[in-house]
Amino acid sequence: MEWMVGFAPFLMVLGxxxxxxxxxxxxxRIELTAEATSEKAAQYASRVQELEDRVRVLERIVTxxxxxxxxxxxxxxxxxxxxxxxxxxxxxxxxxxxxx
Length: 100
Known about the structure:
By secondary structure, the protein is mostly helical. It has one domain (about 1-80). It is about 85% helix and about 0% strand. The chain contains two helices and no strands. It has helices at about 1-65, 70-85. The longest helix is centred in the middle third of the chain and has 64 residues, at about 1-65. The chain starts with a helix and ends in a 14-residue tail after the last helix. About 0% of the residues are buried.
């Protein structure tokens, strides 16, 4: 039992050193995590800003031209429908070639 009393201060010193080293490692891990998180937050913020700018441009396009866009889309659909039904371009007439 007496030998345990002699080792007690030694064990206490080892415990204190172990706890302090774990504490330093934990602080370092928290700092690295905070840095990585702040970098990601900055990337997300810049991406959100880009998307907000694009939405503003789209809103300006829609509000500047009013509701004419829907009419233009329908006109394009009508043109495409006419092209599909009648064919487009000039017929080549390869079967009935003219002879020179």
